[in-house]
Design goal:
Length: about 100
């Protein structure tokens, strides 16, 4: 299980805005080790994520830097009462 404090940030594309949390390279080794044979498209890894009392299943996606990014949907942000720029405590469990 991985636990970290990180900032929720926004990426804006041509037609959509997405919210992410970055799992830094120094914490990504556990994700890579536990998911070696179970990676999905684009190198994604299934995880169970928890912020506060909100838990959901999703995937993290690898970055060129060696870390991963976790997308955080609007429903999760609303239920966890978080917004871009907020520092959050995140727990991840590789599925």
């Amino acid at each position: 299980m991985i636990k970290l404090n990180a900032t929720l940030w926004i990426w804006s594309g041509e037609s959509a805005t997405w919210h992410f949390i970055t799992v830094p390279e120094g914490m990504a080794g556990e994700i890579r080790a536990e998911s070696f044979a179970r990676r999905g498209g684009f190198g994604s890894v299934g995880v169970e994520a928890t912020i506060g009392d909100v838990t959901w299943r999703t995937s993290v996606f690898p970055q060129k830097s060696g870390g991963y990014i976790l997308p955080v949907k609007a429903d999760v942000r609303r239920r966890a009462e978080i917004a871009a720029g907020d520092e959050v405590t995140l727990t991840l469990m590789v599925l």
